[in-house]
Amino acid sequence: MRHRSTSLMRAVRDALTAMCAVLLALATAVALAHLVGSPVAPLAVSGAAAAFMLSGQRGGDPWRGGLASAAAFAVLMAAGTWITWRMPCQPIVGAGLFVALMTVSVWARRFGARAVRLGAMVPRALLVALMTPHGGAARGWWPAGCWVAVIGFAAFWWVHAVRWAGPRMAGRSGPARRPVAPLPQRRSVGLLVSTRAAVQTGVALTAAFAVGHQLFAHHWQWTVVTALVVGLGRGGRGDLALRGVERGAGAMAGALLAAGLAVVVHPHGTLGLVVIFAVLATAAGFRARSYALFTATLTTLMSLLHEYFGHSAAHLLLIRFQAVAVGAALAVAVGWFVAPVRAGEVLRLRLTAALRALAALLDAHHSGTPVDVALLRFERAADAVESVARPHRIYRRLLGTRRGRPHRADLADALHDCRAPVRALTALGAVPGHPAGAAGTAATVTALRHWLADPGTALGLRHAPAAEWPLADLDAALARLGRALPALAPRQAQPAARSADQAEPDAELKSSGSRDRG
Question: Model pTM?
Answer without folding.
Answer: 0.77
